[in-house]
Write a structure and sequence with these properties.
alpha+beta; 6-stranded mixed sheet; 29% strand
Length: 295
């Protein structure tokens, strides 16, 4: 019997991203607020009974690897290993989230695959699934149940936020992929800012966004690699953003706007001023809005 399921996989922004230390294994420990946003991919999976594991991918909307270099492919393989199941799996991916931009697109696609395979196999094993997710990448556990959250450790410590105002955003992505590994290799301890102050957390929860609170310790390093990041950040502020910052390890930046109309106007203006970059008007979403739209 063929089983089919499709879900949306949202992008995320990091309202702040602070480095608090480095573990003996070399991984950096972070303090961040992750916020899922309305910019999203669509992921569909098709399972056919089989005695052997077989995974195929197809993709519309972007040039991405369709083998074990793709996190969605790896998620299907890791799920079947962990839960000792076998199937022919076809993953159909429709990309909207820019690749290599710090928006978590690949991690979100992987999270969607894990959620859907757990649903199709009727497996309720949250801790095991979270362990599988972390083995795929630091951001993947967040996308198992994407909702605004404070994220710590290397991505495994996730505390959903009790409240978060709706954010109206413009996302600007330069025409270059920024290597996460290269950014972290160039990061030095003197640029670590440590945990976010309580005052910043209170201001964000109340909807008061100022650039001084939207700290990203990776931003200066990423700007040295890709100066366009700074240019896009300045542009968003000039277009009316109350605050702007880089997300993840870059190169996408986001600006916070007073409302949806202002964000839409700014995105249109950005496309005219910088036609080689990609601009998206978006908004923050809650957990109930992530997996709800299915085909």
């Amino acid at each position: 019997m063929v089983r089919l399921l499709a879900q949306f996989a949202p992008a995320k922004i990091n309202l702040f991203l602070r480095v608090v230390g480095r573990r003996p294994d070399g991984y950096h420990e972070l303090d961040s607020i992750f916020v899922p946003i309305s910019l999203r991919d669509r992921v569909a999976i098709e399972l056919r009974p089989s005695d052997k594991v077989s995974i195929r991918m197809r993709c519309e909307g972007a040039s991405v690897p369709l083998d074990d270099r793709n996190l969605a492919w790896c998620a299907a393989a890791a799920f079947m290993r962990e839960f000792s199941v076998a199937a022919e799996v076809l993953i159909d991916l429709r990309k909207e989230i820019p690749v290599g931009a710090g928006l978590g697109g690949g991690s979100s696609d992987a999270g969607a695959v894990l959620r859907m395979m757990a649903a199709l196999y009727r497996i309720d094993a949250g801790k095991r699934l979270a362990t599988v997710a972390l083995g795929l990448g630091a951001d993947v556990p967040f996308f198992l149940d994407a909702r605004p959250a404070r994220v710590g450790g290397i991505g495994e410590k996730i505390v959903p936020l009790a409240s978060m105002p709706v954010l109206h955003l413009v996302i600007a992505a330069p025409p270059i992929e920024v290597s996460t590994a290269a950014v972290f290799r160039a990061l030095t301890p003197d640029s670590w800012s440590g945990p976010a102050p309580d005052a910043d957390l209170r201001a964000i929860a109340a909807g008061h966004f100022e650039s001084s609170a939207l700290v990203n310790d990776l931003e200066p390093v990423a700007i040295r690699i890709c100066p366009r990041i700074a240019q896009l950040k300045t542009m968003l502020c000039g277009l009316g953003a109350s605050a702007a910052a880089m997300t993840g390890s870059g190169g996408a930046v986001f600006g916070v706007f007073p409302g949806a109309e202002e964000a839409a106007c700014a995105a249109r203006a950005g496309r005219l001023r910088s036609p080689d970059s990609r601009f998206f008007a978006a908004s923050s979403i809650g957990g109930q809005e992530v997996a709800g739209a299915q085909d």
